[in-house]
Amino acid sequence: MGFKKNFKRFFELEDGTVENRDPLIKYEEDPVPEAAPPAKEKSNVVSLQSLQQSAKMILVEPRTYEEAQDIADHLKNRKSVIINVQRLQHDQAKRIVDFLSGTVYAIGGDIQKVGENIFLCTPDNIDVSGAISEALYEHNQEQP
Fold first, then answer.
1. Residue 95 burial by CB count (10 A; 0-12/13-18/19+): exposed, middle or buried?
2. Taking the model in full, what pTM does it have?
């Protein structure tokens, strides 16, 4: 127990520290910090209207490459988008998916294939869990 007491005394960890001040010398007292005005408390209440607006999902079936920018605008506005590119030629569909992949990467979102030529693009405020397997689709294509 003596070692512990010596250690505390060495580092002045004991609560009863004694200050040796000369009574004839006037010392400046440490200024007492003024109490800051109470900060505006953050509320844990969230408006349901704001949640409903952010939870919208847009369904789009583009006909031309020019519509890709409109889809990107939805993503920038933090709305999920399902894109069906089945009616487009393969090269046009690939260009749109490539453009949206770059958009999703830039906003920190995610893009997933949910069906043949159908993609789900989500911004960073939407979490998507699970995955859709293409094995079932491939199995159905093999059967006549």
1. middle
2. 0.56
